[in-house]
Design a protein that fits this description.
The protein is an all-alpha fold. The chain is built from 4 helices and no strands.
C-alpha cells in the first residue's frame, strides 16, 4: 500500500512521512495526491464539527 492510499484512508500525513522514510513532509506531500472524494469528506466532516461548536443552545 502506497502513501497515497494511506492518506486517502485518513492516515495522518506525519505518520505516512515516517513510514515512507521522508526527512521532510514536503517530500511526502509531493508524492501524495488526495482524491476529490477524500477532500470533500474531510471538508464536510470539518464543517459538521464547526456547526456543532457554533450551534446556539436550545431553550
Amino acid at each position: 500500500m502506497g502513501g497515497r492510499s494511506l492518506l486517502n484512508s485518513s492516515a495522518p500525513v506525519l505518520t505516512v512521512q515516517i513510514l515512507l522514510g521522508h526527512k521532510w513532509v514536503d517530500t511526502t506531500l509531493g508524492y501524495a495526491r488526495l482524491y476529490d472524494g477524500t477532500v470533500a469528506a474531510d471538508y464536510y466532516q470539518a464543517m459538521s464539527g464547526m456547526e456543532k461548536r457554533l450551534a446556539l443552545p436550545e431553550d
